[in-house]
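Researcher: Going back to the complex we discussed earlier. I've cleaned up the inputs and rechecked each line, so this should be the final set. Can you rerun the prediction on the complete assembly and write out the structure?
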Amino acid sequence: MSYLVLDKLKKRFKNEIVLDGASLDVERGETVVVFGPSGCGKTVLLRLIAGINEPDSGTVHIAGQEVTYLAPEHRDVGMAFQNFALYPHLSAFDNIASPLSARGVGRAEIERRVHEVAGLLKIDHVLHHLPKALSNGQKQRTSLGRALAGNPGVLLLDDPLRNVDAKLRYEMRLELPRVLKAFETTVIYVTQDYKEAMALGDRVAVLMGGGFRQVDRPAAIYKDPDGTDVARLFGDPTVNLVPGEIREGAVTALGARFPLAGRLADGACQVAIRPESITVTLDAASPGGAMPIDLGIGETTHAVPVELDAVTPLNVRAVMLLRTVDGRELLATCSEDEASRLPRGHGQGQAHIRAADLLLFDPGGRRLRPGERQ
Amino acid sequence: MERQTTTGRVVRVMLLTLVGLFFLFPIFWVLLMSFQTNQDILRIPPSIFFEPTLGNYKALISGRLESTAGVLEIRFMNNLMNSVILAVSSVALSLLLGIPAAYAFARFKFRLGEDIAFTLLSFRFAPPLLVLLPLAIYFQQMGLIDTYIGLIWVYQLITLPLILWIVRGYFEDISEDIEHAYRLDGNGWFKTFLHIAIPLAKPGIAAATLLSFIFAWNNFVFALILASADKQPVTVGALAFVTASGIQYGQIAASIVLSVTPTLLLALYAQRYLVEGLSLGAVKG
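Model: Rerun complete. Updated structure for the full complex:
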């Protein structure tokens, strides 16, 4: 049995069903990022694990013991809240020491453990301050420190980087894995930011429509999403979705025919193309056209005539807005270097799409995998 | 903020002084009166120059009022003590009952919860005199008339709803997540109530305590009907200064000064809790 097991959790508030049979197994020491659009029930899920709310049905097991209706204080769970929820009348030190003093740990040991955690989080210099005297970043670290200090079996992090500024968020994204490793604790991390999910999770669990839509390693979720809804959540700029048609072992989309690696039943489908799977060359007639590109050896690409509508530089990458002959918009990315050679404004060209990168979905948005039996 | 001109500042100070004088003048005048004899007080035109006397205070403290008509026993110090006992005990009992109740109303949704809370508030709507007559009869039968316990019980009508409703609002303003965090640290709900909810609601508790103390201290009708001379608070006891030989303004003034002092001191002490912020910036909005 896994360390943390959620089994068919259901929860409704008034008439709104928030969770409808959510199940998840988390191994000991694993970090699972729960990711989903806002309002999908991520925070409710954490509250059910923490014991702040009780589910309408379903069970929660921690370390082999059923805790579904157990009070929060008996669960061996730590939680960092999105709004920090620090005790305003206690110093940062006492905030972090709280789970230790609740367990009757001796004064000297508390002193040692708090300084250890604070050192790891780089807040040892502000321990005597009250929360109101701390910056947002320090508050966030204090709340994280408090959750960690008791060395809980399960650590719940509710979007802890939501309320801190961009620089700090970036820093913490690099630092958190190191801190969490040091505690070897089982972590459920909730976020709305797909980059955070990819950066921090051993696995990512996509929560949608009241249940887990897909649970997998970050790279697998990106490369091999189960549905268009999952594909759309990951990636910036978002994936291109175009209608296509499967016929005789090939898919036709955007006027080009892409051969399929395996067999699929004939019929209408949706084709997802990641922006980085599209390489753009401009026609010689256009200003700045006919620039050389390297498509890599052995890759099959298919050219689709497009009009280049706009180029948006995003520091190391640039996003291009393309328009196909029938007026469909496509997003593509390239390096800033390449983008600097593109003309400002419009240009005619070809979009080369790597056939191997295409993801196919049925009209209802479910994934079609070539070779699978239909 | 705009920079003030010198004239602006002077006008501001003058206006503030004027307002302050307007409100403080009665207190100042009563203080002067308490050091004057009845003759000085009733002199026309009144003057702020007089020969101060401690006679009024002496009479109050010794309990002997000497006038032209003879010597009159008054029990002012006894009344003052009664006021202290009644107000302090009533407020203490209300805090003991009201704070946990306020917490329950703020945090837990239970059947008829809102109705019960409103019923408690509605005690403040009823005209006291309407309740008092039946209450006096009941108290007579129950042997509660003219006892501290009976009066403290009736005083709950004044203090309990006030404390309940003010403190409830403060409890509701505390982020529930702060309490959840404390529970997750490994503390039960009662420890959470004691160590998180109460300290954070302290400004509200202080305000409610002060207000209900003032209301209890100033109560007149309940004690007038339900208590006899030896259980009377100062508010009722002051009636004794209306004597056959005239109204003893000097003693009345002195008794006002003495009876206002405890409330005033309490207000000054509680003031710093009243202004202290509630959430102290620990929760990001």
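Model: Worth noting: Chain B touches chain A at residues 175, 177-178, 180-189, 191, 196, 199-200, 279-285 (CB under 8 Å).
Researcher: Good, that matches what I expected from the previous run.
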